[in-house]
Amino acid sequence: DAASNANLPLRFYQAGEDEAHLERIAIVEDLKNAIEMDDGQLFMAYQPKVRATNGKVEKVEALIRWINKDGKFIPPDVFIELAEQAGLIIQLTQWVINTVVAQIKSWQQQDVFINASINVSAQDLTHADFLEYLQSCIEFHQLDAGFITIELTERDMMEDEQKALAVVEQLKSHGFTLSVDDYGVGQSSLSKLKQLPLDELKIDKSFILTLDQSPGDQIIVKSTILLGHELGFTMVAEGVENLASYNLLKEFGCDQLQGYFISRPLSAADFIQWLANYENH
Ligand code: C2E
Ligand code: MG
Ligand code: MG
Ligand code: MG
C-alpha cells in the first residue's frame, strides 16, 4: 500500500521476506516431488549406537537425507521443519517408516538383526493413522515390533498431551520401544515423563559435545544418568565425539553411546561394511 511504499527500509525488508517465503515454497514443492517420485533423492542414513561397557553395536538411529534434484544437500533440520509447517510431514514420515522397516527386514535376510530408531514429529504422533500405518507396515514386511524404536521429543509429547499419551501407550502395548530424544533441553520434568511408558532417554548432544571440557556438563550428565536409572530408563548419549567423552560416559554408567567418535551416520551399504570391520576388531 501507499504508506509502506513510501517507506524504503520497510519495502526492502518485505522484499527479503518475500524471497525467503518463495524459497520455502520452492523447497516444499521439491520435497513433495521427491517423496512422490521416490527416485533416490531421499534416502536414510544409519548411525550405530553401542553399549558403553563393551562397545557392542546394539542399535542404529535412522536419519533422513535429501540430495535434491540439483544435487544440493539440504539438512534435515531445515526441511523437516518446513515439512511440518506445510502439512507434508505425515507423508514424509510414512516414507521413512516404510523405507526403514524394509531395510531392517533386508538386513535380517543377510543375518544382521538390529533395532532401528525412527524420529517422529508431534503431528505424526497425534495423526489418526500413525499407529495403523506403522503396524500395517511391519505386518507387511513380517517384522517384529521389537526391532523398532520411536524417538520423540518432550515438546512433541506436550503439544497435545492427552492424545500423545494415548498413542504412546498404544505403541508400547504393540511392542515398540519408546525413546525421548534431545532430553534435557525441553520443559518436562522427569516425574512427568515417568508417568508415560517410555523406555529410554537420549541426553541432548548439547550436554555431550564438549563434555570432556565442561565440569558443569559432567555434573549434569552424571546426575541425569543416576536419576534416569533410578526411574528405570535406559540412558543414551548422542554427540559423543571423542575418547575422553566416551570414557566419562562409560564411567557415569551411561548405557548406550552414539556419535562421530563411534561412527558418522552411514548409508545402508556402508553400515554393513562398517559393522563387519568393527566386529573384526
Ligand atoms: P536427532 O534426532 O537428535 O539426531 C541426531 C543428530 O545429531 C543427527 O543430525 C546426527 O547426524 C547428529 N550427530 C550424531 N552424532 C553426532 C556427533 O558426534 N556430533 C555432532 N555434531 N552431531 C552428531 P541430522 O542427521 O542432521 O538430523 C538432525 C535432526 O533432524 C535430528 O536430530 C532429527 O530431529 C531430525 N531428523 C533426522 N531424520 C529425521 C527423520 O527421518 N524424521 C524426522 N521427523 N526427523 C528427522
Ligand atoms: Mg533422534
Ligand atoms: Mg529427533
Ligand atoms: Mg537428538
TrEMBL record:
Quick one: a GO cellular component term?
membrane
A single BP term in Gene Ontology: signal transduction
Q: Which UniProt keywords apply?
A: Coiled coil, Membrane, Transmembrane, Transmembrane helix
Q: Which GO terms describe its molecular function?
A: cyclic-guanylate-specific phosphodiesterase activity
Which residue numbers delimit the EAL domain?
A: 24-279
Name of the protein this chain belongs to: EAL domain-containing protein
The species this protein was found in: Neptunicella marina
